[in-house]
């Protein structure tokens, strides 16, 4: 894996940031890992070796999110476990309440609008944390 691939969180603005991100981002998986996507399938074939590599990539990405993004109380994230890149606004439910991106973003925005920042790692975050391939909610064809 190229070392620069997962470093963008370290250069975020000091202002509030709320990325909407897939743990297994379709563009990143195809570009960074060289896994070929079949456009007729919702996600690339999950050969055991490929699935293990994608899961390792997702674990590394999530660790970087925690270390470089969530260590600052003004930042939060909606990190789903679906294989997609952009789009799908409202299509990826996370957590026991099955909240989707637009509702999570509004809840986060309303919380920061109260003027008090939470302590690090206590901010509103939504992280699905499912292994790849996540067949529970990933049923639509992905555009990369």
> Please, how many helices?
3
Which class of secondary structure composition applies to the elements? Answer: mainly alpha
Main β sheet profile: 3 strands, parallel
| Rg, alpha carbons | 15 Å
Write down the secondary-structure element order: EHHEHE
How far apart the termini lie comes to: 19 Å
Query: What is the number of domains?
Result: 1
Write down how many β-strands occur, each being a DSSP E stretch of 2 or more residues: 3
Question: Percent helix among the residues?
Answer: 25-40%
Q: In which order are the strands of the major sheet placed?
A: 1-2-3
What integer is the average pLDDT?
Answer: 77
Task: Catalogue the unreliable spans.
Answer: 1-7, 140-144
Question: How much strand?
Answer: 5-15%
The shape, in one word, is globular
Written description of the protein model:
The protein is mainly alpha-helical. It has one domain. It contains three helices and three strands. Strands 1-2-3 form a three-stranded parallel beta sheet, with helices on one face. Strand 2, helix 3 and strand 3 form a beta-alpha-beta unit. The chain is globular, with a radius of gyration of 15 Å. It starts with 19 loop residues before the first strand and ends in a 17-residue tail after the last strand.
List the helices and strands and how they pair.
Blueprint: E1 20-22, H1 26-33, H2 48-69, E2 78-80, H3 101-112, E3 126-127
Parallel strand pairs: 1-2, 2-3
């Amino acid at each position: 894996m190229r070392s620069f691939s997962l470093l963008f969180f370290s250069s975020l603005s000091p202002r509030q940031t709320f990325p909407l991100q897939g743990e297994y981002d379709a563009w990143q998986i195809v570009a960074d890992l060289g896994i070929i996507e079949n456009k007729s399938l919702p996600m690339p074939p999950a050969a055991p070796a490929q699935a293990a590599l994608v899961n390792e990539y997702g674990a590394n990405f999530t660790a970087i999110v925690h270390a470089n993004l969530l260590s600052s109380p003004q930042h939060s994230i909606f990190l789903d476990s679906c294989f997609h890149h952009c789009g799908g606004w409202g299509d990826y439910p996370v957590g026991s309440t099955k909240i989707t991106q637009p509702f999570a973003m509004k809840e986060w925005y309303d919380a920061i609008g109260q003027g008090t920042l939470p302590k690090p790692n206590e901010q509103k975050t939504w992280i699905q944390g499912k292994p790849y391939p996540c067949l529970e909610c990933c049923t639509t064809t992905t555009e990369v």
